[in-house]
Design a protein that fits this description.
Pfam families: HTH_6, SIS. The chain is of the alpha/beta class. The protein has 13 helices and five strands. It folds into two domains: 110 residues, Winged helix-like DNA-binding domain superfamily/Winged helix DNA-binding domain (Arc Repressor Mutant, subunit A, Orthogonal Bundle); 144 residues, Rossmann fold (3-Layer(aba) Sandwich).
Length: 294
């Protein structure tokens, strides 16, 4: 499991005990963390006047798999720190420049967090279930999860999957009650607590359907799921004046699932996707590089 200590704090804490080469790398990073998140291995090595292997070893010393993983975690920790500082201001960002910066940081934070939580085995297992499902019902409630569930239908139906989405609590229960072996529920929930989602998962699973949930482990929804693709969102209450950024993490997971399924079904759906593109050409002319149906 990943060390919960901030990567930035760890560098500062261990700095006095580092050897000369590692201290030189840490000094460059801590001098301008924002700039360091955009440096290549070669560029950082040059600024620190050390070798590239030294930079890679430094990243591993910090508990990362390599320099790419190190930069992702560094960007995440930096974004988190900046966001909490922003949240503590008495006056929210109001100018176009400030808002653009804060929204960008929030987006980067959400994506970095989702990537750091990635569970490749869970993603592959979920793709396997959805790929073989007779029908897929995409559920979510609330502004973020409901929209992502709708996007899941949009992503999956073009891969020749019988996918549909609803955010209606009554329909979710009814659909769950009519599901059975061979069917799958794909549920998105930040909290894993909405009653309609938990009830639907329990009902459908009891009838033999598979339940794949993109939610936080240990939640009621997770407890009634066949498979959980883990995604823990940040505390949103501090950022009440900004749109919920958790949806970026949900979309990251959804795109991973859709890409995995697309790779599995490419041979069987390629001709159908080509025909779909031709219908769009007939509708409004050449789509050139436009994605099919987007």
């Amino acid at each position: 499991m990943r060390n919960p200590t901030s990567l930035i704090d760890r560098m500062r804490l261990e700095l006095p005990e580092m050897n000369r080469a590692d201290r030189a790398v840490a000094d460059v990073i801590l001098h301008d963390i924002d700039a360091a998140t955009r440096l290549s291995t070669r560029e950082l090595a040059g600024k620190a006047e050390v070798s590239e292997p030294t930079v890679i070893r430094f990243a591993r010393r910090m508990g990362c798999e390599g320099f790419t993983d190190f930069k992702i975690r560094l960007a995440q920790d930096y974004a988190i720190g900046r966001m909490y500082l922003v949240a503590e201001r008495s006056v929210p960002a109001e100018t176009g420049r400030e808002v653009a910066e804060h929204v960008y940081e929030a987006t980067a934070q959400a994506l970095a967090s989702a990537f750091s939580q990635r569970d490749p085995a869970a993603l592959e297992a979920a793709a396997e279930i959805l790929d073989k499902a007779r029908r897929i019902f995409c559920f979510g409630v609330g502004g973020s999860s409901a929209n992502v569930a709708q996007e899941a239908e949009n992503r999956l139906f073009r891969l020749d999957l019988a996918a549909s989405a609803t955010a209606d609590p009554y329909k979710q229960r009814i659909i769950a009650a009519t599901a059975g072996p061979g069917d799958a529920l794909l549920i998105f929930s930040v909290t894993g607590k909405p009653r309609s989602l938990v009830d639907a998962a329990e009902i459908a699973r009891g009838l033999g359907a598979a339940v794949v949930s993109v939610t936080a482990p240990g939640t009621p929804l997770a407890g009634h799921s066949t498979l959980v693709v883990p995604l823990v969102a940040f505390d949103e209450e501090k950022f009440f004046y900004m749109p919920n950024r958790g949806r970026y993490g949900q979309l990251f997971v959804l795109d991973c699932l859709a890409t995995l399924i697309g790779a599995r079904r490419m041979k069987s759906v390629a001709k159908k996707l080509w025909r779909a593109r031709m219908t769009l050409v007939d509708l409004h002319g050449s789509t050139e590089s436009q994605p099919v149906g987007d």
